[in-house]
Structures are given as structure tokens and as C-alpha cells.
Write a structure and sequence with these properties.
The chain is an alpha/beta fold and 220 residues long. The protein has one domain: TIM Barrel (Alpha-Beta Barrel), CATH 3.20.20. Helix content is 43%, strand content 16%. Strand 2, helix 3 and strand 3 form a beta-alpha-beta unit.
Length: 220
Amino acid sequence: MENAATRLETVRSNIARVCKPARREASSVTLIAVSKTQGPEAIQPLIDAGQRVFGENRVQEAEGKWPALREAHPDIALHLIGQLQSNKAEEAVALFDVIHSLDRPSLLSALAKAMDKAGRQVPCFVQVNIGDEAQKGGCPIAELPAFLAQVRAADIPLAGLMCIPPADTEAAPFFALLVKLAADNGISGLSMGMSGDYETAVMLGATHVRVGTALFGARG
């Protein structure tokens, strides 16, 4: 049975392998270990194996388990990759180092106020509703240029664009669309790709991949 160190090495090796034909350095890809629903006992082995960037979906869950882990490992970076309610903006700004789900003017306003109050600038990815799915968060593609202008005017650090392609479909066309949208808007950061498709995402230019199951293993 694979342990955490073996799974981490496999994912890192896969990233390095697909970077080669794209003439990219593996270090140009940030591997985010998605630790949502995982307890400290499952996270610690990955930390021990050298992983230092983790992603959580919910502010409240992260508040419950990360303060102690980060006190022991101050070099850990924590990314919020799930939807964020505007009323949780202050908590998110206090806890996370990067936010991947900025997708609407009301949240932009709340985050700008929270960052100003905290005196802390947190880089944000703008989440794009790449598959035009009503049940998913994300800025509609047609509204993206105007929203990006608002983000830049608010003086919030713009880390890039993020997407979650529709489930049970080929992800590559959606990743390619996000790449085009980023290029059209002068953006280089691309948060795309999860356990089932991170290699495809890296091949197409992902700078950040969000990997959970491939690192933590399937839960029985």
C-alpha cells in the first residue's frame, strides 16, 4: 500500500515528466495538496514528506485544524480553493495566503475591505465559470473583462484565473479556453487541474494544480 511520501513523489514525477515536452521547469508548477475533509493525522505525513502548500474548501474547517499545524511548520502556505461567502472575508484574509475563488463584485468589495482592515494583501485568482454551469460559482465568461478591471482598480493582487471544468467531460478544451482568456487579459497565473486531469492541465500551462485523492489516497 502506498504511503504519503510515495504518492507525493509520484505526483511530482508526473508533473516533471509532462513539463519536459512543454519546455517548462517543474518548479513553475505549484502543487496544492487539497486537504479538505482530511484530519491532521492524514496531513502530517505529507508535511513530513516535504509538501508545503495545502488547499482547503471551507474557512471554518481550516480554522479548526490549521493553526496548530502552521505553528509547528511556519513555512506552510494555505490556499482557499472553495467558494467563499462575503461574510467570511475577514476570516479568510486572516487565515489564507492565496484565495482561488474571487468571482463577484460583492466578494471583491468584502475582500478589499478585509485586506485594508488587516493591513494584509492576499493574492486572489478570479474563478471563471468555464462551463457556464448554473450550479457552480465563477464569473461568467462574458463578464470577465469588466470584472478583472474592477479587481485591478481595487488594488487586490491578481494571481491569475481559476476554473473547474464540468464533471465527466474531457477537461482539455476547458483548460485551453482558460489559457486563451488569461492571454487575452494579460494574465499568466492559471489554477486548473485536479487529481484526474492535472497532467493535462500542466501540459496546457497550469501554474497551480489542486490535487487531493492522488496525494491522500481514496477513502474507503
